[in-house]
User: What shape does this take?
Amino acid sequence: MLDKIQIPEITGETLRRILDHSSDEIFVIDKDQRIIFVNSVCEKHYGLKPSEVVGKCNIELLEKGYWKPSIVPLVFEQKKPVSIKQTTYIGAELITTAVPILNEDNEIELVVTTSQEIQTFKNIKKSRESNPASINSSTPITNCSKMKDLLKVCEKIAKVDSTILIQGESGTGKGVLAHYIHEISKRKHKTFLKINCAALPGDLLESELFGYAEGAFTGASKYGKKGLLELADQGTLFLDEIGEMPLSLQAKLLQVIQEKQFIPIGKNEIKKVDVRIIAATNRDLVDMVSKNQFREDLFYRLNIIDLHLPPLRERREDIIPLTYNFLYKFNKKYEMNKIISQECLDMFYSYSWPGNIRQLENVMERLVVTSDSIIQISDLPELITRNIRPQAQYTLPSKLDDALEHVKKTLVVQSYKKYKSSRKVAKDLNISQTKAVKLINQYCGGMVGKI
Assistant: This one.
């Protein structure tokens, strides 16, 4: 007679590791709608680590816009499994199913929700709940405390019409921030227009901004043309790269800001406009003023509210959420279903991103188009792989827990890549072999073989 096979008991930690290796997102909330468990897919869908989610009420994250719509009211109302389509703030489109667990009194004790990205579905029937309001696409994606503080300032200044100067390196998202301010202002139902002052020569920039009369100059339209200032009346005009505007034009712009009026080229009539000006630059305007390259009076009129956008290397908490945002964006655009490896994400986190968010977006578009089903380190452009430096040279996450977690993960991953053995990792890091196995499984992916 064969001996019965003994099945080892699954501990809580083992179960957590199993769930973390699921390709589906798994959420569990209690009867008070408080989140008591979420697996690691949470970071892929919302840019949040499980530690930032567990313990919070579902409504708290919903109100912050991490996903829409909420499935929780439906399942508590119907007390039966419910499925809907959801959209997350970093661009993931999900099919979410919530299953209630009832007690003897037919009251909900727990709700287990699972979510899967729509790209993985081949045949989906559209339900009546499948048309949620989309997440506000103009909202900057961030988990960085410095950026969150900046967005709070934007919420305050959006209520008034003061001119704004946004400063920051090229590619940091100054245009996105300007559009966000417009979208949450009282002018949101009016026009938002943008012009890059560095992209046009002085004469053409003047005609684009102020418009002109018929036959005002050689090559002018015989019908004349309205300028952007007139077209943006009641709305917002975003002047990107304001530091490149010629001095002669700066004087005319100053008049618009001060007097809310201007004269189109070749006309005698005065045009009155009510337009909010938001300007942006990656140049040092104070230095330009000292060198007489920028009008001091215009600088102070623009600089009533001064916003500084930090570069991506100073907001590393946002690298992974932004990476997934662009992955979703280009998967959808090119009808792909690419995924990205953990090794690539680690390398992205370590890279300095001198071109900031624009560079990250361009890299992700290239990778989605050129890689196989899984984006690997071998797919990355040489510009990135040859410029990776030890992480210690870069700024760690601003939160202590996140910083400690990142250092621990970095040490474990580096040690395991070098030794390929939990016993040697334990010796290298001066920890027990049991703990080494646990950390390798947690950070390196996959289960460690027999040791």
Notes: The radius of gyration is 27 Å. The longest helix spans residues 400-419. Confidence is low (pLDDT under 50) at residues 121-136, 390-394, 446-451. The longest strand covers residues 93-102.
